[in-house]
Amino acid sequence: MPTKLTLTNFYKRAPLLKVSNLSKSYFSPKGEMLPVLDKISLNLYKNEFVSVIGQSGCGKSTLLDCISGLSRPDQGKVNLNGIDITGSIGMLSYMMQDDVLLPWRTLEQNVMLPMQLGRKFNKYEAQERISRLAKIFGLNKFLNYYPYQLSGGMKQRVSLMRACISNKEILLLDEPFAKLDSLTRTQIQTWFLRIWRNNKLTVLMVTHDIDEALYLSNRIYVFSAKPAKIIAEINLPSISPKNVDNLLKPQYISVKKKLLSILHLNSLKFA
Ligand SMILES: Nc1ncnc2c1ncn2[C@@H]1O[C@H](COP(=O)(O)OP(=O)(O)OP(=O)(O)O)[C@@H](O)[C@H]1O
Ligand SMILES: [Mg+2]
Predict the structure, then answer these.
(1) Which of 28, 98, 146, 213 is deepest in the core (most CB within 10 A)?
(2) Which PANTHER family match (predicted)?
């Protein structure tokens, strides 16, 4: 008889991404050692939406840099499907915090850029894929537009589309909605949740916005101030479908209070 997929069984499966004991230090301009990540271990399961939350400067982008292979950790491992990918670039899609669109390239040319860097680039196929995805992202009428001709929300969708086009198993997102005004942000978040659900994506997102983490995630890891340690892991109530009104429900309000107290206590401790 097939095993029933309960929450407990879900987390008994092997994780798609396993980060173990990741540590990273930088050197300050004065040459002093600056520990940023302190033995971070976390798991990401297929089709999950997981957030990492923590105050500014605690090491969230550094974590994604290390997971993506852009930066090499001093210690620790990153495993994808059981294979060690520590320090390997291009295994995961990564939308960086300061992801910029090149102003001299059209929307289509911007999205095409990471594909052009790949070895098996075929322009005709790339255009086909972009055209298909642009319909999903509501951007099909703007493929020939330059970034200055797009609104802030549209540019954000182009960056997300560029991250999604590579069809990698995991999408790493660093503050993907932070530059949007609050009304547009909720619209784009709701739209992205639909993309995540319909396309069965697996997402690890970094944010310092508590409501954003509560609205979008299945699970949240909470980081301490620098050097970042995981100080809490929170499973969110599984109210389906995810809806922004959920944030007003008692289950969510109690999780929000818990998160606020953990973050507040921690920031006082490290101030
Ligand atoms: N390449 C680097 N060289 C030296 N120090 C760095 C480097 N990159 C990051 N840092 C330092 O590491 C610390 C963590 O930076 P990081 O960008 O990971 O923080 P963050 O949590 O993403 O912050 P924010 O929420 O503001 O984006 C900061 O003190 C930063 O100055
Ligand atoms: Mg950052």
Answers:
(1) 213
(2) ABC TRANSPORTER ATP-BINDING PROTEIN (PTHR42788:SF2), TAURINE IMPORT ATP-BINDING PROTEIN-RELATED (PTHR42788)
